[in-house]
Design brief:
By secondary structure, the chain is α/β, with parallel strands linked by helices. It has 14 helices and seven strands. Strands 2-1-3-6-7 form a five-stranded parallel beta sheet, sandwiched between helices. A two-stranded antiparallel ribbon has the order 4-5. The longest helix has 32 residues. The termini are far apart. About 3% of the residues have low confidence.
Amino acid sequence: MAKLETFYEVMRRQGITRRSFIKYCSLTAAALGLGPEFAPRIAHAMETKPRTPVLWLHGLECTCCSESFIRSAHPLAKDVVLSMISLDYDDTLMASAGHQAEAILEETIKNYDGNFILAVEGNPPLNEDGMYCIVGGKPFVEQLRHVASHAKAVISWGACASFGCVQAARPNPTRATPVHQVITDKPIIKVPGCPPIAEVMTAVITYMLTFDRIPELDRQGRPKMFYSQRIHDKCYRRPHFDAGQFVEHFDDEGARKGYCLYKMGCKGPTTYNACSTIRWNEGTSFPIQAGHGCIGCSEEGFWDKGSWYARLTDIPQFGVEENADVIGTTVAGAAGVAIAAHAAVSALKRAQHKGE
């Protein structure tokens, strides 16, 4: 097996000081939600472990996952690609093309058999023997199965690879199929979203390289560190939901005041992702902050769950402020009914006692 430089060796070759390296490890631990005691472990891993080869394949997709990935700020995508991993194949980012690119793919498989990570963006179509997506003159599904059989683990980038996305929406004429339904004998980490958040993508890779294992996953195969809470739980508009203050029409007075977008079809109450905490473009904003409800793109089959603007029907509301008078009247009425009922029962008992 060819020797790869460690992450630390690459950083020192680029003129990074030891002090800056330790600072980087501390920031990485914080980004992953780990305590300061993990910084030395991250440093040790970076000093001793060789960079991991990564093969990044593209099936049916729009390249939005790659577009998101290269915009990561913590860490920068260039640091991930040039220092942390050895991105040996990615037909979107690599300089090589055609036969040269395919030769690199096979060379990496040969030299690092069982020791590289396969990242998949998009999904394979299975109809017509996979002829709806051709890479290097062959159906993509053949390339996927071939490379996956030699990989250590598989990362499914985005909603397309994780759950099928728009390609697999009804009636799905190409039989676009999520990666985990085609590759069944390898560990698969799903990082859904359309696209996923850039820092989530780089953090998943960082975690795997640092600890040499896949992160803890939820029941759907998503990393719990980023997909364990609903967007609704940490949304800055949540107080308006609890207060019963909603946008009724786009650009109405409620919209100008930043009220909750639940009635406009926001899927935040049923969507698990880190959008409301990590946000996008270096933490600048996310769709709900921009005035549009969540469309639930990190959940399975979100294209087939009705209109993005259709209101969820099974979410209990409280509405303390807007309905306070109604709630008070209802409680008072219920108390009055209870008192009357108690009086009637008492009178009936007294009448029965006199009759006896």
